[in-house]
Specification:
The protein is of the alpha+beta class. The chain contains 12 helices and 8 strands. The strands form 2 sheets. A 4-stranded mixed β-sheet has the order 1-4-5-8. Strands 2-3-7-6 form a 4-stranded antiparallel β-sheet, with no helix packed on it. It is globular and about 70 Å long.
Length: 392
């Protein structure tokens, strides 16, 4: 594809710059509660001023931008150090409901989603079904006009602050694997649902365990049809592994530039081994961006991200880890100091990033799962004998 954005996209870019010059919300607070309030406020401003949901239909408060304008949108938001989607549901849950949700579900959930008024999480992984998600066992049984849900989810990101969850539940037999999975919208305030935050090695509680004990979910909360939740989940995962990374690529473009400047400031830019590693990171960040544009172009043309999303996911996870491993190594002992330490470099951002990205090759499908998908569905290699068919 031609990566030149064209005059219309560049004119749009200038309009967005003018908007941000007037409405920039400033830096977010450091505390979690303050940041969440800041994000919600920023989402409201974007919605009120017509700058929310660059890929969303106008009927639901979006902008319906062309591919070139979407790229310009994310580039300018990244340059301004602002989130283009203050509510993650806009990119993760929204596309699922736009495609598979009932008219009632769309009317109920999409408008507040655009404004960031409700937070969502994805209830996928379980203690016995992480990488092999098709082995999930949280069961939903019909009782009158409700499902009764029992089971457990784990590593559920942002669930401690969510209002609703897209949950995968077992409505068929265990032997049915992915053919017996249904997707439900679950209000996290429903009696019987318990959320227990988990602290990670970076000192944060971004994910939780979620327990379901006789949780009653209305039948009308099924997304799509019963036992077809696996197809829908793959759509959501494909979006998370591909189109969402377009904005992240642009953020990492800035971070690589900052790391190059920091290397020079520390007097290490002439070291040949360090220069070689910086060259690798520079090459990688350019390839990430080009690959994301390729996938975004396909999605914009009406195609699914498909197995190419696994390539994008694998590339990003490896890049994130290598970037922060290099930064901590280049900084030496000071690079291991956390935020608040007077000797920490740039308030410990690189040490925090190093710890946070240890999970990059696990979340949203492990690196091993991505390699299997690439091997089987792109390279055409024999399928894993333990799995009846590709399920990631």
């Amino acid at each position: 594809m031609d990566f030149a954005l064209g005059p219309e996209a560049e004119a749009f870019r200038q309009q967005l710059r003018d908007f941000l010059r007037v409405h920039h919300p400033g830096q977010p607070p450091r505390d979690l509660a303050g940041r969440r309030a800041w994000l919600r406020s920023w989402a409201g401003v974007l919605a009120d001023e017509g700058w929310a949901g660059p890929s969303w239909p106008k009927a639901w408060g979006g902008m319906e931008l062309s591919l070139g304008k979407q790229v310009a949108y994310h580039e300018e938001m990244t340059r301004a150090r602002l989130p283009s989607a203050p509510a993650s549901a806009l990119n993760l849950v929204g596309p699922v409901l736009l495609r598979y949700g009932s008219p009632e579900q769309q009317r109920r959930y999409l408008p507040p989603m655009v404004r960031g008024e409700e937070d969502w999480c994805l209830g996928y992984s379980e203690p016995g079904a992480g990488s092999d998600l098709a082995a999930l066992s949280t069961r939903a049984v019909v009782d009158g006009d409700h499902y009764v849900v029992n089971g457990q989810k784990v590593w559920t990101s942002e669930s401690a602050h969510a209002d609703a969850m897209l949950a995968l539940v077992r409505t068929g037999t265990m032997a049915s694997r992915q053919r017996g999975i249904t997707m439900l919208i679950v209000d996290v305030r429903t009696p019987g649902l318990e959320i227990r935050p988990l602290r990670d090695m970076a000192g944060e509680t971004r994910f939780s365990e979620v327990f379901f004990t006789d949780v009653r979910v209305p039948l009308q909360n099924v997304v799509g049809r019963e036992n077809e939740g696996w197809t829908i989940a793959r759509t959501a995962l494909g979006i998370e592994r591909s189109t969402n990374y377009t904005a992240r690529d642009m953020g990492y473009r800035r971070i690589v530039d900052e790391l190059i400047r920091l290397t020079a400031e520390r007097g290490k830019a002439t070291d040949p081994l360090i220069r070689q590693e910086l060259a690798h990171l520079e090459t990688a960040v350019r390839l990430l961006h080009l690959n994301s544009l390729r996938i975004l172009s396909a999605v914009f043309g009406g195609d699914e991200p498909g197995p190419a999303s696994s390539v994008s996911r694998l590339m990003h996870t490896q890049f994130e880890q290598r970037l922060h491993e290099f930064a901590v190594s280049m900084l030496g002992p000071n690079g291991m100091l956390a935020a608040g330490d007077p000797l920490a470099v740039q308030n410990g951002r690189w040490a925090w990033g190093f710890l946070r990205t240890r999970a990059s090759t696990i979340g949203a499908g492990t690196a091993e799962v991505q390699r299997n998908t690439i091997a089987e569905r792109i390279l055409g290699l024999p399928a894993e004998p333990a799995v009846p068919e590709p399920v990631s």
